[in-house]
Write a structure and sequence with these properties.
Chain lengths: 300, 355
Amino acid sequence: MSSLFDKRLVFVTGKGGVGKTTVALALGLAAARRGLRTVVCEVAHQERVSRILGREGVGYEETEIGENLSAMSLDQQHTLEEWVTYQLPSRTLASLLYKNRIFQHLTAAAPGMKELVTIGKIWELAQLHRKTADARPYDFVIVDSPATGHGLGMLRAPRTFGDIARVGPIRAQADKIHDFIVSGKTGVVGVALPEEMPVNEMLEYREALAKEMELDLDVVVANGVYPERFSQAEADALAADGEGPAVKAALTQHRRRLQHAEQLERLDGLPLATLPFLFSPEFHLDEIELLSHELEEQLP
Amino acid sequence: MSVAELLEDKQICICAGAGGVGKTTVAAAIAVGMAERGLKVAVLTIDPARRLANSLGLPELGNQEARVELDAPGELWAMMLDPKRTFDEIVEKHAPDAKTRDAVLSNRIYQELSTAVAGSQEYMAMEKLHELHQEGRYDLLVLDTPPTRNALDFLDAPDRLARFIDSRSLQFFLAPSRTGLKIFSRGTGLLFSVLKRLTGVDLLQDLSDFFASFGSMAEGFRERAKAVKKLLGDERTTFLLVTSPAQEAIEEAAFFRAKLDEAKMPFGAVIVNRMHTEAGEEIEPGLEELVGDELAAKVRANFEDFRALAIRDRANVAELAAGGGGRPPIAVPYLDEDVHDLDGLKLVNEHLFAA
C-alpha cells in the first residue's frame, strides 16, 4: 500500500465542526517535517488556519507559515478572476470580462462553474509546472474542504460541469482535472467525531465516494477520541464509593470513552487513525504539533 | 427564559447555526417539547444524513410529513425535504403548459441547478416552509436549516434566487440570432465570442433554452421569494441560534446575530449546546480516603481538565451574552449520553424547557 505522502493532492473532508482544519494542518506539519514542500489550502474563505496560528489572515497569496509549509485561503472571486486571466490573451480583456454583469450572471447561472474554477486552482497548485508566474511547485497540496452538506461537493464539480459543457476548452479542462482526481495521485481523508451520527455520515460519504467517483477513503481520522484514563475496575470503584463532582467527572470521562470505543468499532475495516481529545481550552500551534505526530505514526 | 416562553404565539421557529453544533438535535427536541405541550408541530430538515429520522426513531423520512409516535397531548410530524423533488413540484405546479414543464424538467441546466447549486437547497427549504405555513395545518413549524458553509447563505437564499432569475436577461445575449445582440455594444459582442470559445457553444445553447422556457415562471418565483422573505421577518417567526461553547462557534453565532438584526429578522435566543458544567464546582473533600491516593490523583487531574474547559465555555458564553444584548443564552449541558433518540431528546428538553 502506498503512503498518503506519495499523493500530490489530498482532500480533507467531513461535516462541519469535526475538525477538518485541525487535521489538514496536522497533516501539513507532518508532511513538511518529511521535507515535502507543502501547502494547506482553505476554500471556504474562513481563515481558520490563520485563527489557529494566531496571525493575520493568510489571504489568497501563498504564505509561508513554517519550514516547507505554506497556507492560503481561496475565495471564489479571486479564483475566478485569476482563471479568466489565464484563459485570455490579455489582462484588459480578462478584466473586461469578469467585470461584465452578464458574465457575472453567467458564472452564477452555470451550475458548478464556481466550484470548477476553485478545484481548477487547486489542481494548478498540485502541478509540477505551475501556471502562476514565479510560483514554485509543491510536493504535497492539502485541501481543507468546505463542509460537505450534500454529496461530494467540490470533488464532483469537474464531472458535473463536464456533463453540461460537452465540448470546448472548459470541458477539456474539466476532464483533465477529473482524471487527476481519479488518477491515484489524489487522496481523500475523511474526518469524523467518534459519535453515532457523525460515524453514520462518514460511512454514507464513503459509499457515495465509491459510487460516484470510484474512489475510496485513504484514511478516516477519528478526531477528539477520549483517552483511557480509568480502568473498568477503577470506574466501578468510583461508582460505588463517590458521588462528588470530581468522581462524577471521572465517570463521565470513562463513559464517553467507552462510547467512543464503540463508535470506533463501527469504522473497523477502514484505514483508521485516531486523534485524542485534547483538554486544552485554547487550540493553537502547539496542540496541532502534538496531533501531527500522533497522526504521522498512524498514517498508511 | 425557556423555549416554551420564547415560542408563545410563534408559528415558525428556525434553528440556525454553523455545522456540527447540534442544530438538528435542538430542532427535534424543540418539536418534541412543543408537541408535549399540546401543539401540532412539524419539524423539517433538509439534511439527507438521516439525523432527524434517526433521532425520532423513524427509518426514513420523505418529502411528505410523517407522524412520529409520541405519547403527548399534541402531535409530532417530521419530514426530510428533498430539494430536487420540491423544485420539480414547483415547476410542475407553475408551468403554463405541459410543453414548458417538460422542457424545463429535461433541461440539463435545470437538472444541475435543482440538485447541485449552492443556494437552491436553502431556497427550497424556505419554499416548503412557506407552503406549509400557507396551508395552516400546523400550530408550529420548526425548521432545521441546511448545513451550509456559512449560516448566512440561508438568509441570502431568496435574494440569490431572485438574482439568478434576473439573469434570464442572458437569454437575449445567448441567442444572438435574435434581435438581442444588436442592442449590445461591441464589447459585449466580443465577450460573447470569448465565452463561446471558452465554454463551447452547447453550454450557451442550453442556458439559452433554459431561460427561454423558465422565463414564464420567473415572475412567480420572484413573487414567492418576496413572500418567503416577508415570512422570515414576520413577528410570528423566531430565529434560534444554535452554537457550541467553543470560541470559533461563538464568534460565528455573534456574527450571525448581527446579520439577523441587520436583515431585520426576529431573533429569539442563542442556544449553547454541550456546555461543560464543572466551572463552579470544587473537588469533594476526602477523595484520597475514599478511593486511595493513586486513583484520587487521577480523578483530580481529570477534574481539573474538565473544569478548565468549563471555565472557558463560561467565559465564551458570557462574552456572547455581553455582546448580543437582550436575552441570556439558554445552555444545554454536555450530556453523558450521545443524543440520538427520543429519550435523549427529552433529556435535552429538561434544559431547553427549564423554567
